[in-house]
# Entry
Amino acid sequence: MTSANHSSLVRRGFLAITVAGLLWGTTGMVLQFVRRSSELSPVSVCFYRMAIAALVLLVATRRQLGPVLTAARSQPWRIVVVGLGVSAFQALYFVAVAWGGVAVATVVGLGVPPVALAGWEAIRARRLPPRATLCGVLAAVAGLALVSGLGASPAGTAPRPFLGVAAAVGGGLAFAITSVLSRRVMREIDSMLLTTASTAIAAVTLLPVALLSGGFAVPTGFATDGMLLYMGVFATALAYVLYNGGLRTTTGSTAAVLTLAEPLAATLLAVAVLGERLSPASMAGVLLLLGAVALAHLFPAPEPVG
# Structure
């Protein structure tokens, strides 16, 4: 493969992961609308989006079920761990929101992956991360803190702050581990097959959690069903296909920074659709997130050797 072709593939990977982040960024707003139109709990909504995504992906890969099963038998524990990691990140994020508040869940849950992955890649490479990577990670964490309004949450919104932080850290680490394992698995199997298998595992894992959490019901109503279909088809199935496909040519730390398009999109949608207003600090956070994503596009972290 020529250098020009490789560069083109890398740029396509960056774009795919950024679009995945933008799609994920719409879920918060859609979740608010779903909760207004139904009695579903957040974890139940999470299960339905994963179940719909798994069904869509299984239909899309129905002629490749043989390769899916073969791939699963070739390295079953890695694929299972990826699926468990997807469900763990989803569930722990909601727990972090309930116990520690939205601000802590956002900053810690989304801030841990780029830091952890940059550290992991530095250990593998046996050298410090490039200056652009460090600057991007620092800008990302600072931007998340400002956008989420860390420290400005009303009293009483964090009934169990320590456990909330612990859940957010656990969710962030689950996302980071999932990213590392996904890249390794995709050296041997197609990203579409991995996404199908891991999403199905995540849906099965989330079902008992949704049943035990309360607020689980069969959704009724055209509006609710339509929003769940959107989250399942576009904000989950398509988003994970794009993300896993992009991971083939993108390091984990760079991918984690690129996915910060998620809180960026969520913030801008809250302003444009929900009528929320940005404070000066939040606007500064938006600019820092834009800068972090731009740095990841312009100065991607090098692939660790070994």
Remarks:
- The chain is about 80% helix and 0% strand.
- Residues 151-156 have pLDDT under 50 and may be disordered.
